[in-house]
UniProtKB/TrEMBL annotation, chain A:
<comment type="similarity">
    <text>Belongs to the SusD family.</text>
</comment>
<dbReference type="GO" id="GO:0009279">
    <property type="term" value="C:cell outer membrane"/>
</dbReference>
<keyword id="KW-0998">Cell outer membrane</keyword>
<feature type="domain" description="RagB/SusD">
    <location>
        <begin position="334"/>
        <end position="411"/>
    </location>
</feature>
<dbReference type="InterPro" id="IPR033985">
    <property type="entry name" value="SusD-like_N"/>
</dbReference>
<keyword id="KW-0732">Signal</keyword>
<feature type="domain" description="SusD-like N-terminal">
    <location>
        <begin position="20"/>
        <end position="213"/>
    </location>
</feature>
<dbReference type="Pfam" id="PF07980">
    <property type="entry name" value="SusD_RagB"/>
</dbReference>
<keyword id="KW-0472">Membrane</keyword>
From TrEMBL, chain B:
<comment type="similarity">
    <text>Belongs to the TonB-dependent receptor family.</text>
</comment>
<dbReference type="Pfam" id="PF13715">
    <property type="entry name" value="CarbopepD_reg_2"/>
</dbReference>
<dbReference type="InterPro" id="IPR036942">
    <property type="entry name" value="Beta-barrel_TonB_sf"/>
</dbReference>
<feature type="domain" description="TonB-dependent receptor plug">
    <location>
        <begin position="116"/>
        <end position="236"/>
    </location>
</feature>
<keyword id="KW-0798">TonB box</keyword>
<dbReference type="InterPro" id="IPR000531">
    <property type="entry name" value="Beta-barrel_TonB"/>
</dbReference>
<dbReference type="InterPro" id="IPR008969">
    <property type="entry name" value="CarboxyPept-like_regulatory"/>
</dbReference>
<dbReference type="InterPro" id="IPR037066">
    <property type="entry name" value="Plug_dom_sf"/>
</dbReference>
<dbReference type="InterPro" id="IPR039426">
    <property type="entry name" value="TonB-dep_rcpt-like"/>
</dbReference>
Amino acid sequence: MKKNLRLLPFILLLTGCQSFLDVQPELQVDESQAITNGSTAEAAVNGLYNRLGSDSYYGSNFPAISYLSGGDIQWTGSQSDPQQITARKLTADNGYVGSAWSAIYKTILQANYLLETVPTLSDPQLTADRKNQIQGEAYALRALSYFDLARGWGGVQLILKATHTPSDNTGITRSSLDDTYAQVLKDLTAAEPLLGNTTNRNKVTRKTVWALRARYHLYRKEWEQAETYASKLIDDAASYKLTKPYNAFFANNAVATTESVFEIAYTNSFKNGHYNWWLPPALSGRREWAPNDKLVTLLNDPTVGGNRSELIAKTVPPGNLWYGKLYYRTPLGTDPAYVIRIAELYLIRAEARAQLGKTTTALADLNAVRDRAGVALSQASTKETLLLAIENERQVEFPFETDRWFNLIRTGRVAAVLGITDVNKYVLPIPNSEILADKALTQNPGY
Amino acid sequence: MQKLLFAGVVWLLSCGGLLAQSTGTRLSGTVRTDNGEPLPGANVVLKNQTKGASTDANGQFTIDARTGDELVISAIGYQTTQVKVGAKTTLDIFLGESASQLNEVVVVGYGTQDRKNLVGSVSQVNADEIKNRPVASFDQQLQGRAVGVQVAANTGVPGDGIFFRIRGTTSINASNDPLYVVDGVFVNNQSLQKITTQGQSNNPLADINPADIESISILKDAEATAIYGARAANGVVLITTKRGSYNSKTKVQLNTSVGQAWAPKLWDLVTGAEHATIINEAWINDGKPAATRPFRPVSEGGRGLPEEQQTYDRLNDIFRTGTLQNYDLSVSGGTKQTRFYLGGGYTSQQATLRTNDFSRASFKLNLDQDITDKIRIGTSNIFSQSNRTNARVGDGPQGGILQAALHTPTYLPKFNTDGTYAKWAGFDNLDVLINNTDMHSTSTRYIGNIYGEYDITSGLKFRSSWSIDYNDYNEYEYWNTLTNRGSASKGLATSSISKNTIWINEQTLSYRKTFGNRHNFGALVGNTFQGNVATQTLAQGTNFPSDAFKQIASASVTTSSSTSNRYNLVSFFGRVDYNFDKKYFFETSLRADASSKFAVGHRWGYFPSAGVAWQLKQENFLRDVSFLSDLKVRASVGWTGNQNGIDNYASRGLWGGGYNYQDNPGTVPVQLANPELKWETTRQTNVGLNVGLFNNRIGLEVNAYSKYTYDLLLQVPLAQSSGFASIYQNNGEISNRGLEFAINSQNINKAGFQWNTSFNIAGNVNRVEKLSIPVDASYATERMAQGYAFHSFYVYKQLYVDPKTGNAVYEDVNKDGQITVADKQFYGSALPKFFGGLNNTFSYKGFDLSVFFNFSSGSKVFNNNRFFLESGGTRDDRRAINKNQLNRWQKEGDITDVPRVTTIGNNYNLSPTSRFVEDGSFLRLNSLVFGYSIPKSALRKLGIASARVYYSGSNLWLLNNYQGPDPEVNVTGNPTTQGYDLGTPPQPRTAQFGLNLTF
């Protein structure tokens, strides 16, 4: 017996050494098993939305970069990263900027994977319609990703194929801003026919693509198309209308109201930490930042903010701290991320129309938004006064969403409004770690 | 030189046979210690003749002699004995222990070795020497005791993680910790903790009761470590626990101590009035109107004038005098065939920082049984349970107890005007945390093995063993509705159960034989199979009916998850050692390891080593030099490997789950494949010198080494446009070069009075030799880059504060007229240039005194507390301000390094800057012990064999320039960050009284 025991390891060695050393992961799967049929493809689609809604992207970080830059939010915390952003003293190693950059490219990778694999799948469970739908979602979200990169950083590297080895997608230089936007349009155009003409506020449909196109054309100053695409949504009154009062789209745990064209949904198995940065300690947050005095005054002004004053509240004495409460679902972390709301489409169309000289209809669109907020209707009648009124309306309509900063950059008003004259600061720095890791990548000037 | 030595050894091997001779009658015998244990490796020689033998593993020897001859029996660590050969042909010889430290038997890989015969570089520490320092784990007790071994506590919380490096840092992403082997069991030292305590982690080695340890052997050079091959790149720590003695009376030992711990120094914060003054000053400096300064009369809508502000001290609320207690009871003994050691221990240590407690109850059973003359079986067992109550200590505001105390501005009251708890700046109310923090963990640990040994023939032995290290780490946290974490969620609880199992099956075949009296030959072959399984189950619940319900079963919203991770290793190893006449030594070993972490084709790594030594004292030309008692030179070279610490599936391309949307399962790619991934390898060369003087009353050891690590297992940063952050690659090279010097001296050795001194000092120069891309540490304050030491700080260098403007002037490295990331520079490393210890022990009649200092010099610390506490008004009412901020520039002509306070510009908006990089050097009176042994004559009547009472103090004095309480700090268990101080509780000062009793 002992002899046998002694031999056991050697027997093991001869017969089982190889299998003893083949340890398969249980928590994750090999790349080759990732997308193989309909159900695994559906899982990867969920992964795409998850990437889009991660804390580093729309979950909190990307909107934060925009609103912290916009001059209406003060830094009230301890972290250096938001301190730099609110002070517009960004360095290329800012963590918020770095994680947004990486999260956006992770979203693009996921879209590229789907676009590469889904057409090749042969699974009777996966219908041609469904295949089209998935590719349409991938194209549309890749478009949104490049749109965000373009408005944040300027022209970027266009990565259109999935990365399988570290040498894939290397040596690609930055495209121009125009070429980057051209890719956005190309992807939106590709997505449109692949998607169903349905209403789904948490996923991409043809209607979502229209809304994104309206915004795209506004940024590109293509006023007619902006108007056209905005109208497609506004005219679909059965599906989209301004909720009244203002807070009806978010208060009392509201989700997916008619206000939303596209909002990212969060549940127990996918949360965001946005509320944490806004809420005061008394409400379990860390109030890393808060509306500044100027914004508090505007929102509390019945002639400006109207019932949008519901976006803010104040803690008990002696604290008396103002805080934002668009994101408040603690500790669930299920506050939706508002990617595009019907109010924005009204204001897009208002601006497009004003630019086209259609002042009456422009004013009507603007006043639709004002009316919903319970403020007196605007009397602006010239293009210039209308454009200014629209700019001011956006300030109080989207103070905690991804708007103010990009809006002022887009219109070229940032110097006049925020006093930032260094044009180098109109784009974010490329993360320094990327410059180190990628020889083909060049830094934006001034960083 | 090495070649010459090697040639010499070969020559000796080839002609050694000529020297063998044989005559007379055959004597056989057993050499045993006083305790009756067989003594292997003892020398048995005929007086005035060259003939000799040495004892085998069972203490047995045979020698040819004539009646009337005199046998001289000697062994290192034992008194030499002479025996006249009479009629008896079988002899039983007992050797008493000798006093000299230099003669000890040293535990080495898969065996023991006389220190005199060592070829490799090994430090051995007797547990008795170090046990008086009341810390939770033996690794911390080793601080300053073993030359070349750098030990630093991360925090002053007992049972927390320890920074432990043998001869420097060799790896970036793989582990830098040594391999710990307890009685042959490879034990886990990676924390299983999953519930965050904010930048701190538990030390799994605290599960082992130091009182059960007999000796700790630290293998440093490749000759000593290579037998552990792939596990040994960072050195090996061999722990031998106490065993009974054959043929000995049962001995009962009781050790007990009680004491206190307190924080000798805390932080200096400004008063409320000073805080207000700074904030107002920053306001004015920002160019804002004085009329709206924050601290203006309440009647004008302000917070009150500076002089009206109160000062609220919070630091003294969280630091306390902790109690320490320790009880160890052991029973040991043996018969002719059996020996046993049974131990039980309980220790309880309160941290000076409130709500942090550590306690451990442990059992120990070691048993050996001779079944026949040739077969032995035995077992070693450690069973323990360590209980911790924790707090969130370091980084992050929510629930952070030290942060809430240190960083809440001192002018802010503890209560709101309505009497409710006030909460400030993202922090919890401190009183709430002190009274409601409920975090605790229980580590249940079993470390044990069973073995069987079979003496096949004389000198040839087979051994097989099965070992297990099982650890169940069970954590729980409950945050009730008063705390920030629990208030909105109506209570929040997390339960995490982590289990880690390492099992090992091992076979060795060893052979030891002396040929022709002087050719001492040993050989070893063996193999091991090792499996590692780690699983975790996590559950979280929120929304509890009331604060009285604390278990997740009562929560209305719950989530849970589980994970599993495993890897396996297969190893074969062999070693041959030879010495001629204990004069010329040669040793070589080879180990082959295969790890499941690598893809087929790259699994096996081969790790050879060779060493030579020359005992010059044995040469004729030194025989008559009487003051010289030992002179040995050594040299070795070898290769060792590393795969610890990297992900178990690091070579695979992986997709991960859990990336869900709308509660539907989602997947995303998480890792790129690298099928070419292979072992990280360290080449080490070592030359050493041992000198013994005046009958070994002075012993000196010097080593010089060079370690070169290549094929670093590195998470190489990728361009994130690829969608991946990094990929595991063999990329980079790191060198460590160092000198070690240790001296032991019996200054006075008279009956009644003894004075011994031991001193050690080691210096290590670490350099990243090759790295394709700089890698930032987990806190980006540190960066690893080619040409610089590990843990180098990478900061904006503040040149001076302009006396004219008060603005900080930073070095514009690239001279482009602006300060950008391109202007960051390397600014010292958290690694010390040299470190060591000095111990003096005195004994006079029944009194004993030991005074032990340890020191470390040349390291830097990033004082991140100051970054927050000296932020020049930018953090207004969100962070406290320290006294040093008062040294700010105020008017033209002020010379200071604290810039003008303002929220504008670079004075306080740039991070990290060299302003907060401080010198971490220190000299510490690590421990002082004063004891008195009651005369045995007085005890005999009571049936007590010996009794000693003692006082022991630790950390009684500290010399340093650091602005925080203690420079020995680190916020995180993450191996890439070191010397980063953020809310780190300082080392406690302790005083204890104790009693040792033996029956």
